[in-house]
Amino acid sequence: MHRAPPTSRPSRGHVQAWQEAYRGLFSDAILDDPTFIPRRERFWANVLADDSGRTRAALAEIDGEVVGLALSGPSETADAERQLYNLYLLAAHYGSGAGAALLNAVVDPDEDVILWVADPNPRAQAFYRKQGFAPDGPVKIEHDVREIRMRRT
């Protein structure tokens, strides 16, 4: 587990894990967009270049391959301290403990933290419930996918 990834290598792992997690929820056109990897490379380059300390990023690697990643930062809303922006794990590593380790690397246990999760996404929602999160009311629609907000206080 690396708390501050040294390169933009998370991009391909991010895209693959995102595609595995959302196939069937998001349209194939969104998931297979050929510009997604270059956009993720720019995104991670910016994240990793940010030395403000506002964001926290972590990678899970096995034999030099990125198998998971997480990113948190200031909440986008005033009613929470921190927000989990991303937590993705390759499907082959579900249930390995890597997801919990990634979460713990980017969110302190005493922080009031929120996240958005696709609904339905029973596997992810069960994972977050196990980590102490619960739905707290707000709902939004992005890319025709319903998302619920979960909070851990």
Automatic annotation (TrEMBL):
Top-rank taxon, per record: Bacteria
InterPro entries noted in UniProt: Acyl_CoA_acyltransferase, GNAT_dom
Boundaries of every N-acetyltransferase domain copy: 6-153
Family matches, as CDD domains: NAT_SF
One Pfam family cited in the UniProt record for this chain: Acetyltransf_1
Gene3D superfamilies the UniProt entry points to: 3.40.630.30
This protein's name: GNAT family N-acetyltransferase
Organism: Microbacterium candidum
